[in-house]
Automatic annotation (TrEMBL):
Matching Gene3D superfamilies: 3.40.630.30
Source organism (scientific name): Mesorhizobium album
Top-level taxon of origin: Bacteria
Alphabetized Pfam families for the sequence: Acetyltransf_1
Protein name stated in the entry: GNAT family N-acetyltransferase
Entry keywords, A to Z: Acyltransferase, Transferase
Amino acid sequence: MSEIVVRPLAQSDHADWRRLWTAYLTFYETKLPHEVYDVTWKRLFTAGEFEPKGFIATLDGKPVGLTHYLYHRSCWSQVNNCYLQDLFADPEVRGKGVGAALIKAVQDDASKIGVKNVYWMTHETNATARRLYDHVARRTGFIEYDLL
């Protein structure tokens, strides 16, 4: 039986992280400058309450998924909220529990510091991910707006 292992990102994961994050961005038809990759990687290892954090998932020892998340304050709570910003599993392992394991790792990390609210967004056309999300979380009904 295949084993999914989720662990915090390590400096030695840089090449796999870059490959997985590039695939995630490609899925969303997005390209970012190399400088954004560099600053994001640096921030993932910078200490601080509000700096982003990351996990990598392996399946039988091969890196196959990643997530980025961050904590932020809220006017609705005394404790922080957790925004799960990026979640990606290689297409060939989808449906094998990688996404659910990554979400659970973020939820477990948040609960260690008393954070109960872990939330995220996805595109309405991302049917594969939405099947998982509908299974592990509740849909809030809120609609996102951006001022870009």
